[in-house]
Amino acid sequence: MWRLQSGANSEGALKRLLTLFFLVLLGRLSVADQRSADAALAKAISAFNQGKLEEAAKQADVAARADSKKPEVWNLRGAILTRQKRYDEAAQQFSQALALDPKFYPAKLNLAEVKLLDGEYAEATKEYQALKELDPGSEVVDFELVLCTLFGGEPDKAARMVDLMKFPGKTPAYYYARAAIALKKDEKGVAQKYFENAKKYYSEEQCRYFVQFLKGMDLTLPPPPQPEKTPDQHSGTRQKPETGSH
After folding, report:
1. Is the pLDDT of residue 21 over 60?
2. 31-118 and 121-221: same fold?
3. 70 or 29, higher pLDDT
4. Does domain 121-221 have CATH number 2.60.40?
């Protein structure tokens, strides 16, 4: 049991005791909130990677309520909105992430991507060039700079930029950049070979980002034609044989 002193000393001791109690309580709540936010964020990222955008958004909201000062939460919200092609709203989420942490690189990259996907090629190029200074070896930045140039109406320059990309790289960026140029020229067979080589040398997880990004730019191969079904000569309604006269 705590023993209280009498008079002013007793009152002062009580105030110090209550202050200490609330600080400990707040500390415990903060740790609990942090764990809750981290758990919800992990679930949101998992759902996002599986294409379950509604569930990802739900878990991101849970994470935001637990800890609204995590830039990762706002960044993920922006990524979900980007996948839904709600680019203006996505940009607001990325900007909020950067307001919390101006050096948060993923949000900077995603903000550039939103401008590229939304057709703001000149503005996106400026953003990527700034990112290139921060991370000169980024194959993702190189890949998306190629797309900026390609969709900006300079396919020959885009091809020369791919010539300068690292090959082979740590990522399949080179293959997907080549495939993008081929698809833009309507050279589907050439693009198919680059897609196949990317999957041959890199894992599905490494390829997923680039495939998804090209889809966002409407650069995809048409699905292969389904083989025509040949009628089964044994199928159909069995007819009763005719009976002759005896």
Report:
1. no
2. yes
3. 70
4. no
Q: How far apart are CA 82 and CA 59, in angstroms?
A: 17
Q: What is the DSSP letter of 71?
A: H
Q: What is the pLDDT of residues 158-201, one digit of tens each?
A: 999 999 999 999 999 999 999 999 999 999 999 999 999 999 99
Residue 246 has pLDDT above 50, yes or no: no
Handedness of CA 211, 41, 137, 167 (dihedral sign): negative
Find, among 120, 154, 160, the residue nearest to 142 by Cα: 160
Nearest CA to 195 out of 185, 186, 208 is that of: 208
CA 3 to chain centre: 58
* 5-14, 37-46, 70-79, 136-145: segment of lowest average pLDDT: 5-14
Whole-angstrom Cα distance, residue 94 to residue 114? 10
SS3 9: helix
Mean pLDDT for the chain? Answer: 84
| CATH architecture, range 31-118 | Alpha Horseshoe (1.25)
- Give the residue extent of every domain in the chain: 31-118, 121-221
Give the span between the Cα atoms of 76 and 239, in whole angstroms.
63
Helix/strand/coil for 224: coil
Residue 63 in contact with residue 41, Cβ under 8 Å? yes
Residue with tokens 């900006």: 152
Compute, in degrees rounded to 10, the torsion defined by CA atoms 210, 214, 216, 219.
Answer: -170
Q: Is 60 helix (H, G, I), strand (E, B) or coil?
A: helix
